[in-house]
Amino acid sequence: MSDNITHPFIIDLVKGGFEEFVQASILTYADYTQYECHFVGSIAYSFDLLLREVCETHQIKVGTILKSPINELFNAVLERESNSLLSL
Taking the model in full, what pTM does it have? Predict the structure, then answer.
């Protein structure tokens, strides 16, 4: 779909999917506007502008959008381990 993202049908399809996700997963929290919402996955990453557009209509603060969390997880483990070694 990313090859045809400028086609109106694809835009509507992706935005519709994001809208359904937002309705089912974010708007169910009463205080969702008080927090940043972070997203992980290739769909969110590839279509981040459309995701941000949908979130903006609901006053959702978008934080980080990661394609894959493995690098950040790896770095966090390395930092934790190096900090624990320094405290010895």
Answer: 0.80
DSSP letter string, 45-73: HHTHHHHHHHHHHTT-EEEEEES-SHHHH
Structure tokens that stand for 56 in this block: 């903006």
Length of the chain: 88
Q: How far apart are CA 40 and CA 38, in angstroms?
A: 7
Tokens of 84: 């624990």
Nearest to 24 by CA among 63, 66, 54: 54
Tracing tokens 């934080």 back to the chain, one arrives at: 63
> What is the pLDDT at residue 72?
82
Q: What tokens were used for 69?
A: 């969390």
Please compute Rg for the chain using Cα positions: 17
Measured CA to CA, the distance from residue 86 to residue 22 in angstroms comes to 43
